[in-house]
Amino acid sequence: MTPRLFSLYRSRLDQAKTMNLQTLANTPFSVGTAMFLARVSPPAVGHWLADHIAAILASRTRSGLVQTIRQNQQGIFAGRLSPAELDQAVAAVLRHDLRSIYDYYHLANQPQKLLTRVTFTPAALAGMQRTQQNLPTVFACAHLGNFDLMGRALALSHYPFLVLSYPNPNQGYKMQNWLRSRFGLEVSPMNLESLRLGKQRLKSGGSVLTGLDRPLANQGLQKYQPRFFGKPANLPVAYIRLAMDTGTPVIVIACTIQPDGSYRLHASAPIQMNSSGDLHADIIHNAEAVLGFAEGLVRQYHDQWLMFYPVWEGDEE
What we know:
Layout: H1 3-14, H2 21-25, H3 28-40, H4 43-59, H5 64-76, H6 83-107, H7 111-116, E1 118-120, H8 122-129, E2 137-141, H9 147-156, E3 162-165, H10 171-182, E4 186-189, H11 192-203, E5 207-211, E6 227-228, E7 231-232, H12 238-246, E8 250-257, E9 263-267, H13 279-300
Parallel strand pairs: 1-9, 2-5, 2-8, 3-4, 3-5
Antiparallel strand pairs: 6-7, 8-9
Helix pairs in contact: 3-6, 3-10, 4-6, 5-6, 11-12
């Protein structure tokens, strides 16, 4: 890493005082820079740089980024965190996120080394084995730990599924999806066509994976707002409808960072979809059953919840 490269990256950060971290991270410049730095920097240097940038971002307490993280952290704990605890949570979230970005790009082209850093809980191993047994499954992933690195590990372990990614991706997201495809994942942004493909995949014994906690656009205007941590949240439910339409169970998965720097995949047991005949009520009921399991993991690993968009409308600290 050269002083010139560090200066260039720092200047981009200075331009992003009020930018959302995901907006910054998902520009082609940032993705390319992160990939280059991760390739040429050893872990001690890469983690030092990640921690330094995280500290800079966390210090900007009035930025939209920091305020959103504080809001989401308070949502987990029903507003009970003190200002000092929120400061610590923000710093930890940013540190985990930037270290995860480094680890992903550093290890993605080192398959054997990457796989030594990943372990599965028994439930996660049983869930993933369903993909090799032609047992259709919808995997709903929480944004914890290092989900991209875990996706690479799952592809290397020959667990096949269709990834339905965030709809209408910008150029940075398109680049990330291209990388995911290059690293062995089948990725399609969510739209009517990809949902039809997902339905066909499930009906033929395949599996689908998508996110469960990334808020939708048009906050407060969505038809379905399942409760997450006790409050209505603007979270996706398309995967619930997909599971209901195909009679497929949903398994919640999440990747967490362990104290030794390794990564662990957690999973729920298969969650069967309820069908009472009241479509709206069933979608809400089923979504809340899925989100209920995710709540436990997010609460336990709250400082690894890498969610930089407001999940609840109008929350205050």
